[in-house]
Amino acid sequence: MTELIVPISAGLPGGVVEIGLAYTPGETTPDKPHDWRTGSVALDGDVLVSVSYWSGSADIIRRGAPGAHKTVTGLVGPRGVSRCAEGHAVVAQPEIGRLTRIDRDGHIRGHLDLPGVSPWFACQWQDRWLVSDDTQKSVFLVSPDGRTVDRLPVPFPLRSVRSAVPVSADHYLLCDRESQSVVVVSLKGELVWQYGRSNYPSSQEGCLTSPEHAVALPFGVAIADTRNHRVLFVDWEGRVVWSLGGVGRAGSGPGRLWHPISVSVDGCGLLITDSGNDRVLEVDLHGRVVAAHGHAPMEAGTFHLPRSLEPTPAGYLVADSYNNRVTSFGVDGQGVRHTASAVGRDLFWPRNASVIDGSTVVSDSRNGRILLSDGHGADDWRELSLSLAGRPLALIDPHAVRKSRSGWLVTDTGLNAVLLFDPHTGDVLHAWCGEQAGTDLGRADVTRLPLDDVHDAVIDDEGAVWFANTGHDQIAVLPHRAPRLRVLAPRSASGASSPFVAPRSIDLMGNQLLVTDSGNHRIVRMTRAGLVTGVYGRRRGHAVDCLSDPRLARVSRSGEVISIADYLNDRVLLVPRTALGEDSDTVGSAAL
Question: pTM, whole model, 2 decimals?
C-alpha cells in the first residue's frame, strides 16, 4: 500500500526534525505548548467556560465576540467542568480536593473542599454532588457541604474513572478510560447498559480507545473516544448514529479531531473539547461543526501512537502501532510504503521496527510474532521461531529487538522476560525473567530477577545487562556474573532526586545511558552512577521541546542524533545530542 508523502518539518529550533504532522499554510511546529484544555461547558446562550490544566486557568468565551475573552487564574490542575443549578461553572481540581464555582463574568463565587476526595469531575445530582475520583478509582455521592461522602457500588473494579453524569433519578453514566467502556450503572451497582468492549482498545465496531468523557441525552449517548480521535453518538440500542473525527489520523481539518477529551450538552447541541488542537467546537445533534473557538495549526497527521523510529540507509522506518502497520519512507518523506500484513496475517499492534544486519525486523506484538524481511515484497517476510532448552517457546507480547555481541535480544512483557537468542537458529541462549514470569520457562539458562513489566534491555561491552524495569519505575543493571540487580537512583546535578515514572526504553550513549522516562514525558541522559546530565522534554505538550508519553529513544551510530517515538503526540522526532538541556530539580508527571 502506498501513500503520497509523510510530512517532515526540518530546521526547527535546536536542529530538531519532526516527522508525521502536517500544518496549515503559514504554520509550523509551535515553540510554546498550549495549556491542554480538559473540559468546557455552556453557561447560558452566549457564554462558554473552558478550563486548561497546565495554566491552571479558565477561559470565559463569548460567542460572536472573539476579542471579549477573559481568563480566570488561580486554579490548581483543573480537570472537568460542569454547570450547576445556579448557572455557574463548577471546576474540579483533584490535586487539592476542591470544587470552584465561576460565574459568567469570570468571578470566582466560592469553593467547596472535599476532604479525602480527589474530584476529577463533579456535577449536581438532585441534592448532592456526583463525583468521579480517578485517584481512588471510585464514584462518590457527596453532600452539599462536602462533609458526607458515600462511595457508590460498582459492577466491576474500576481502572480509570474520568467522569460520571446522571441519566435518571437512580442511574448514572460512567466512563472508565482504562476499561475502554462507557456504562450505565444503578445506585445499587447494577450494570444496565454498556458500549465498548471491556479491556479491548480498538476502533472496530462496538469498541472504544481510552474514552475520557460521555454525556447522556434522551435518545442516546455522546462519547469522547479520545485516542480514536473521534466523538461518537450511540443510540440506546448500541448503534452508532454518527461519528466525528478520523480514526487513526489526527488533525484539525474538516472532519478531524485530535484527542477530544470531553463532551457536554449545549442547548440543542454539544460542546467538544478538542484538546490536542487547543480548541472548543460547537456541534449540532447531527455531528456537524457549527462553530470553533481556538487556534489549531496542526492540519493532519500520518501516524497514530507510533512506537519506534529507525533511520535506514534509504530513509526511515516507523512502527505505527495503532494503525497496525509499519511504514517506510525516504529522507524527503516520499516513497512511502505501508506494510500491514505478513506471513498470512494482518499485523496487530507492532511495537518495534528496526534494521539489523540488513534485515527489517518487526515485533508484531499482539500476534506474538517476530517477523523478518530481506526484501520489499509481501512474500519476503518470514516468522522467527524461538526455542529454549530444546522446547518451542511461544512469544506473548514482544517489544524491542536489538543486536548484541553474542546474539539478538528481545523483550517480551507478556513473558515478563528478556531473551538472548541466536537469530539463525532461534535457540534462546539465556533468559532473564521476573520472579512472576508469564509462562514456565523451566530452569535451563534462566536467571530470575525482581523484574516487572520490563520493556527494554541492552547488554554493554562488559557483559552487564541494563533493564528498563517499567513496572517498578526503575532502571536496573545486572553486572556480569553478579547475583543481584543494582537499581540506579537518578539525581540532578544539585543532588536532588529525579525519579523515573514508567521508564520504557534504555540505550547506551558512549559511557552514559539514554532513558525514555515515559511518565515524566522526557528523555534522560545520565551516567551509569545515576547522575542526570541531560534532558529533552520540558513538560507534556505539543511543541518543539516537549513530549507526550514518549515510548522509545535510540542513539544513532554516530552518537550525535537521538530518534524518539513521541507516542501521544502522534509523531516521531530526530533530536541532536546538543539539544538535551539541563535537568530541573522539579520533575512532574501529568496523567492526562
Answer: 0.90
